[in-house]
TrEMBL record:
Biased composition (Basic and acidic residues): 267-278
Official protein name in the record: TBC1 domain family member 15
Quaternary assembly: Interacts with non-phosphorylated form of RAB8A; phosphorylation of RAB8A at 'Thr-72' disrupts this interaction. Interacts with ARMC12.
InterPro entries on file: Rab-GAP-TBC_dom, Rab-GAP_TBC_sf, SGSM1/2_RBD
Organism the protein comes from: Cyprinus carpio carpio
Pfam families referenced in this protein's UniProt entry, alphabetically: PH_RBD (PF12068), RabGAP-TBC (PF00566)
Keywords assigned by UniProt, alphabetized: Acetylation, Cytoplasm, GTPase activation, Phosphoprotein
Function in brief: Acts as a GTPase activating protein for RAB7A. Does not act on RAB4, RAB5 or RAB6.
Locations listed in the record: Cytoplasm
An example Gene Ontology molecular-function term: GTPase activator activity
Keyword Phosphoprotein on entry: yes
Location of region: Disordered: 242-278, 591-637
SUPFAM superfamilies, per the entry: Ypt/Rab-GAP domain of gyp1p
Compositional bias annotation for Polar residues: 608-629
Length: 637
């Protein structure tokens, strides 16, 4: 049974060896009845008693009733019966979900129910795991779980010291990332036969970083510009291929005989852009239905849309209007959508100050929106100036979206998605419903788990290795094989990489979902390929690669990139024996349920990424010889 015992200050008088001590470590309690969380200040120590190391926490005062406490309000809806076992009560940012099953209940809870916050002592031999969790107001906590499956009350290091504590712990135990989640660290006894791992390799805490990861989640763009290397270090560690390995670094022996699997793809065809869609009426029947939606999408993909038609066509591309709707039906849809919008707007407009004070989640959304509105595309005349009505519309649409999708609410970056929509439609209602259609495509990018983003980085690495294994090998050698420096590109579809006008052209191309849903990944591949000579020729290391990629913003030429990405697609689809994983990323093959990749299973699945078939190697990828590929590429006008 796990030995977690209540103790008092006198226990420190027992003969022991003090290994580590830190003041200002707050214990996070679970006071649900009062709708307030309490953090109690105290000391954290590592001590040896009779040769057995233990972690101990005790309050500053011997009588915890006299100990000063720091209060902050929890999110609404968390009231309930008080529990002896700690339960955070809300989802933390980047929280690690422990898969440890509770085997036995604690005989003595680590926090007493009498209101006197006692001390706890945990032998390090009974520590199962630790994780870093961030709760509602941005505080970061260290959560320890015992071998019985019971989490201790989280500890907040108000004055730093977490790094030093974990270094002291590593004198007695070894901390290793969980194979299921890179943010969960498992505790093992030191084993002379095991490869030791330095604490610096864990990148778990960095007291000098001012919690860069949390700031990145709250503001991925400002933080990215200021500290991109540290942000990428985090994602590199959070992805399953940690410890300076690329997803493909553990290739099988068969793959070792295919050092350049992309060399036999055949020539890349030349692609030219077409003319923009400039005649909308020719696609409408007498009742206003779009007669050939696929033809419209193909024209938009090849050439975009002239500015005068964007407002109308975008509403079809984003699902505001069905393609088969008549003019009369669209009038009815607009009236209904307008009524629905203003009903939702009234909901948040009618929230009183008193109500808002009791709703920290709503209050947090409003605060984030107000801050972001004041710095979104202010260089654009539609949003420039302090009294610009465009800013009011931007604010109101985002607040209304919170009522439309309160589970997701507002996440920073959504203002970047809305501003071009509002600029083009010049209409509050239409921009809102276009935003909902856009979010239907990318909402997973903004979810707390970030699983969709990790999946996209995996898919990007699959494509890039098939196209340019030499570049991938170089990035691997510089600890950059995870491609996490592309995170911002994929998160908001290159919004910060191109000019505002180019983004209007790019997004309407991507909304067509031609020639495949992952066309934005092909764009990323082309950009990386275009930087190959600079990256390898200048012998860039990990940090300089990040710096170079980040400095590409506003220096990229959109039209050649669109041509290059389409050429890559045609080159890959003309490959006779395209790797199955590449086919799946391009939508040429539906993955079976047993082979669907996930970030957690990535190493196992990417080991055989470039195996062309069960009996053939990479040499089976020959130049296109006229035979029909698995699915023919789309035809364009």
């Amino acid at each position: 049974m796990v030995s977690i015992r209540s103790c008092c200050k006198s226990v420190l008088n027992v003969i022991h060896q003090l290994i580590f001590e830190k003041e200002g470590v707050y214990l996070h309690t679970n006071a649900k009845r009062s709708n307030q969380d309490t953090t109690v200040p105290g000391f954290i120590r590592i001590v040896e008693r009779d040769g057995e190391p233990a972690m101990e926490w005790s309050p500053v005062e011997e009588d915890a009733r006299k100990a000063p406490a720091v209060f902050y309000t929890k999110k609404d809806g968390e009231e309930g019966e008080e529990e002896t076992k700690f339960d955070p009560g809300y989802e933390p940012d980047w929280a690690v979900i422990s898969t440890v099953k509770q085997q036995r209940r604690q005989e003595h809870p680590p926090v007493r129910e009498t209101g006197q916050w006692g001390s706890f002592s945990l032998p390090l031999s009974e520590l199962y795991s630790l994780r870093r969790a961030r709760f509602s107001l941005g505080r970061n906590f260290l959560v320890l779980t015992t071998r019985g499956g019971d989490p201790l009350p989280p500890l907040h290091f108000n004055r730093g010291g977490a790094r030093e504590l974990l270094k002291a712990m590593q004198r007695y135990i070894r901390l290793a990332p969980s194979p299921m989640d890179g943010r969960l660290f498992l505790a093992y006894p030191h084993d002379s036969g095991a490869l030791s791992q330095s604490f610096d390799e864990l990148h778990l805490f960095d007291d000098t970083s001012a919690d860069l990861v949390s700031r990145f989640i709250q503001d991925p763009y400002a933080t990215t510009f200021g500290g991109f290397s540290k942000v990428t270090n985090f994602f590199r560690g959070a992805l399953p291929h940690t410890h300076h390995e690329s997803p493909l670094s553990n290739r099988s022996p068969q793959d070792a005989h295919c050092p350049h699997p992309g060399a036999e793809l055949g020539p890349r065809p030349e692609v030219k852009r077409g003319k923009p869609l400039d005649n909308w009426d020719q696609f409408l029947d007498p009742e206003g239905r779009v007669t050939d939606p696929q033809k419209v999408k193909e024209l938009v993909f090849r050439g975009g849309i002239v500015p005068s038609l964007r407002r109308e066509v975008w509403k079809f591309l984003l699902g505001f209007y069905p393609w088969n709707s008549t003019t009369k039906e669209r009038e009815d849809i607009l009236r209904g959508k307008t009524d629905e919008y203003f009903r939702m707007k009234v909901q948040w407009k009618s929230v009183s100050e008193e109500q808002e004070m009791r709703n920290s989640l709503f209050r947090g959304y409003r605060s984030l929106i107000e801050r972001d509105v004041n710095r979104t595309d202010r260089h654009n005349s539609f949003f420039s100036g302090n009294e610009n009505p465009g800013l009011v519309l931007l604010h109101d649409v985002l607040m209304t979206y919170c009522m439309y999708n309160f589970d997701l609410g507002y996440v920073q970056g959504m203002s970047d998605l809305l501003s071009p929509l509002l600029f083009v439609t010049q209409n509050e209602v239409e921009s809102f419903w276009c935003l909902t259609g856009f979010m239907d495509l990318v909402h997973q990018n903004f979810e707390e788990s970030q699983e969709a983003m990790k999946q996209q980085l995996l898919h990007l690495s699959i494509l890039l290795r098939a196209l340019d294994p030499e570049l991938c090998d170089y990035l691997d050698s510089q600890d950059s094989g995870s491609l996490c420096f592309c995170f911002r590109w994929l998160l908001i579809w290159f919004k910060r990489e191109f000019s505002f006008e180019d983004i209007l052209s790019l997004w309407e191309v991507l909304w067509t979902r031609l020639p495949c849903e992952n066309f934005h990944l092909l764009m990323a591949c082309f950009i990386l390929e275009s930087q190959k000579e600079e990256l390898i020729g200048s012998n860039h290391d990990f940090n300089s690669i990040l710096k170079h990629i980040n400095e590409l913003t506003m220096k990229l030429d959109l039209q050649p990139i669109l041509c290059g990405a389409e050429a890559i697609y045609l080159q890959l689809t003309h490959c006779k024996e395209l790797p199955l994983k590449v086919q799946e990323v391009l939508g040429l093959r539906v993955p079976s349920s047993s082979s669907e990749e996930s970030p957690d299973s990535e190493p196992k699945e990417t080991d055989t990424l470039l195996t062309q078939s069960e009996t053939r190697g990479a040499s089976s990828c020959q130049p296109y010889n006229g035979q029909t590929p698995q699915r023919p590429p789309p035809t364009y006008p």
